[in-house]
Every structure is written in structure tokens, then in C-alpha cells.
Amino acid sequence: MKKTIRYVLSEGIKTLQDNHITHAKIDATLLLEHLLDIDRVYVIIHDDEVITEQAYKLYRHGIMLRAKGKPLQYIIGHVAFMGLNFTVNEHVLIPRQDTEILVEEAITCIQKNKVTHILEIGTGSGCIPISLCHACPTIKVTTVDISKEAIEVAKENARQHGVEDRIAFIHSDLLQQVDKTKRYELIISNPPYIKREDIQGLMREVKDHEPMRALDGGMDGLDFYRRISTDVMEVASHRCYIFYEVGHNQSIEVKDILEERGYTHVKIIKDLAGINRVVTGEKYQSKTNRI
């Protein structure tokens, strides 16, 4: 049998279906497009084109990885977020479209209030600060992550998008290594928020491949919201905005965490699916803390 695009794609789809991969056709097609550097139209029009033996072997290797549950984004090595392309590997959480509403809301706040100094906590791939810098050319961002490997991925993404001179990357457990003499006008974070007892119930692509410390939010999933909401007061400017992504059914609890710590104008924002996805608030402090 000639290894045409049609044949190898059909074979790939069947392998993924036999291994109960939910989006078998989509994943098999995307992997083939990536390896051959072609688009969907080319796949349709040239489906009788024969591919090389080397390309076939690479494709089968990728298909078998996907069949075993490895996320397609890690196999391909990149993912789209906010219209930009980000390198990813198993040291970083895969950026999700759900997080785009967090970035969009922060951009609106930055532009409306002329924010210039931002602190992000838990950068992962760097998709949040890089997207902010891409949309807002006057800002500077400091971002932290407990993982040295994640910091390296984020730095590479910043270089690829030409914003490395506007982002300071710090290897730190939350704010431990952050310069406490600096002040930030906006804090943003998509922290770990999965309840510890719920992690084993996640899809195997997530629980078996994505970094556990980017998922585990403690017993009730709220540990990092409590810590961050308290700790950032030390580096917040006299008027500081805070933006969180939150998990399903956590928005009211995170709203309470902020209000208990003196944050005002706390709002819950829904994503495009109508799910409470972002919690934001403001913190006013003495003007001696001004940037």
C-alpha cells in the first residue's frame, strides 16, 4: 500500500480511535499538518500524494505518543494563545483558551488606567506576560515561577516574540525572591487551583503529563489565592489591581478571600461559555507605596 496522505491519515485516525482519544480525527490531522508543514486545504486537495518513509515513521511515532495519552501540544511542541505561538513542553502547563479572558480583561484595565508596572505570579510558558507586552507596548512585567525549567521555556518564548527586554523573569516560590522595594500597579495570576483530591479524576492527558505543581491548589484548591492575596500587599502600589483566573465553582470563595483582605470593587467575570472564570479587585494603600 502506497503511503499517501489519505492512507496515513486514515491509519492515524484509526489508531487514536482504538485508543479512545476523544478528538482522534482532529489530532491525527493536526499532527500530519505539523510534520509535513502543510495546511488543511493541502491535505484535502493532495490526499493522494505519497509521503516519504522518514515522514511516515515520524508520524507513526507521534501517533503512538498521542495514543498513550501524551497531549498533542507537547508532541508538536507549540500552542496558539491570544493569536501568538508559544513553545511548550512537559515543564509548563499548556496554555488554554479559557485563560484568554483573563488576559483580555487585564489589557482593558492596563489601557484604561495607564498601568505600566505589572507582576505576574506563576508564569509557566510565559503566555500571559508575553501577550500583555505584545498588546501593551509601554508596560514592563516582572514574573515569577518556582520551576527553573519553566522559566527557561518562558524566556525562550519572550525572545521569540521580541519582548525579552520588557520582562524580568525570577526563579522564586511566589514572592520570596521578589525585590520588596519595587511596587506594582497590577497583579495577575493563573495559579494552581485543582483540589488535591480531584487531581486523580482529571483526564490522563492532564494528570499524567502536565506538571503537578502547576495543578495542585491544596486541599480546597484555594491555597495560592490566600497566599498571593496577602503577600502581594507588600509590593502593591498605592492603587493596585489584581486579576485571577479561577476554577469551576471557586469564584465566590475567591471573591470572599479578596474582600476579607480589604480589596474593593471585587468583580466576577464570565468567559464565553458563561462560566465564572476571572475574579478581579482593587487594593488602596498609603501613597508612600507609590511606584
Automatic annotation (TrEMBL):
Listed GO MF terms: nucleic acid binding; peptide chain release factor N(5)-glutamine methyltransferase activity
InterPro entries cross-referenced by the UniProt entry: DNA_methylase_N6_adenine_CS (IPR002052), HemK-like (IPR004556), N5-glutamine_MTase (IPR050320), PrmC_N (IPR040758), RF_methyltr_PrmC (IPR019874), SAM-dependent_MTases_sf (IPR029063), Small_mtfrase_dom (IPR007848)
UniProt record, GO biological process: methylation
Entry binding sites for substrate: N190, P191, P192, Y193
Reaction(s) catalysed by this chain's protein: L-glutaminyl-[peptide chain release factor] + S-adenosyl-L-methionine = N(5)-methyl-L-glutaminyl-[peptide chain release factor] + S-adenosyl-L-homocysteine + H(+)
Residues at which S-adenosyl-L-methionine binds: G122, T123, G124, S125, G126, D145, N190
EC number: 2.1.1.297
Record keywords: Methyltransferase, S-adenosyl-L-methionine, Transferase
Domain Release factor glutamine methyltransferase N-terminal: 9-77
Every Methyltransferase small domain range: 107-198
Keyword Cytoplasm included in the entry's annotation: no
Cross-referenced SUPFAM superfamilies: S-adenosyl-L-methionine-dependent methyltransferases (SSF53335)
UniProt cross-references to PANTHER family, sorted A to Z: HEMK METHYLTRANSFERASE, MTRF1L RELEASE FACTOR GLUTAMINE METHYLTRANSFERASE
Protein family: Belongs to the protein N5-glutamine methyltransferase family. PrmC subfamily.
NCBIfam families (alphabetical): hemK_fam, RF_mod_PrmC
Function in brief: Methylates the class 1 translation termination release factors RF1/PrfA and RF2/PrfB on the glutamine residue of the universally conserved GGQ motif.
Name the record gives this protein: Release factor glutamine methyltransferase
Taxon lineage: Bacteria, Bacillati, Bacillota, Clostridia, Lachnospirales
Gene: prmC
